[in-house]
Amino acid sequence: MFTFFQKKQKDYPDYWLAYEECFREKNGPEIFNTRFVALDTETTGFHYKNDRVLSIGAVSVMQNTISVADVFEIYIRQDTFNPETVKIHGLLREDRRVDAVSEEEAIRQFLDYIGNAVLVAHHANFDLTMLNTALKRMGLPKLKNQVLDTSVLYTRSRITSNLIDHNRSYSLDELADTLNVAKSDRHTATGDAYITALIFLKVLSRLEKKGIHKNKDLS
């Protein structure tokens, strides 16, 4: 006889079950051989419940290299519109992209892309909460991936000093300027994901010089 949990699991769509299956294969302990996915979302606003994800951009990072052949970009078809955020992401109500898909289809493709990769985002809580809220609307659990925040990692990479404010939150622009990362395609999901990936690699190099070579030591 199935328990309630087993029944619920059985009712999940195949794409979610395939995503869960990825986690049967664990990432190795070494950072160098782990697949990371740097991601960014553009949204209609900053309210988790009322606003929606407009687009998702992501790029794969492995063996200290960004794979330009392994990039994810998707636009989501929707009716929600916030004119106040247009000046940030540039996506207008009139932009009826022929390649835009439903929220469920976007999430399905995103799950297929990330698999069990370690996710990297700048101020990751916002992006991940928006994505998890979309999953909740679809009746699905939260993402299972390990998540890293480039702002937090950057703070850890700096030389320990009483003068450093370890609680400070750095903007993506600040880190890009500090680490000499070009800000091309800023405020597009894919562009910001690529900038985040470049920042991640530079910060990772600093952390490795401090003797950090294993995934568990990044969290």
How does this structure look, described?
There is one protein chain. The chain is α/β, with parallel strands linked by helices and 219 residues long. It has a five-stranded mixed beta sheet, sandwiched between helices. Helix 6 packs parallel to helix 8. Mean pLDDT is 86; it is low at 1-7 and 85-90. The chain is built from eight helices and five strands. Helix 5 (124-137) links the parallel strand 4 (118-121) and strand 5. It is globular and about 45 Å long. It has helices spanning 4-10, 14-22, 86-89, 103-114, 124-137, 150-157, 172-178, 189-209, and strands at residues 36-43, 53-62, 65-75, 118-121, 147-149.
Search tags:
219 residues, alpha/beta, five-stranded mixed beta sheet, 8 helices, disordered N terminus
Short recap of the structure:
By secondary structure, the chain is an alpha/beta fold. Helix content is 37%, strand content 16%.
Describe the secondary-structure layout.
Elements: H1 4-10, H2 14-22, E1 36-43, E2 53-62, E3 65-75, H3 86-89, H4 103-114, E4 118-121, H5 124-137, E5 147-149, H6 150-157, H7 172-178, H8 189-209
Parallel strand pairs: 1-4, 4-5
Antiparallel strand pairs: 1-2, 2-3
Helix pairs in contact: 6-8
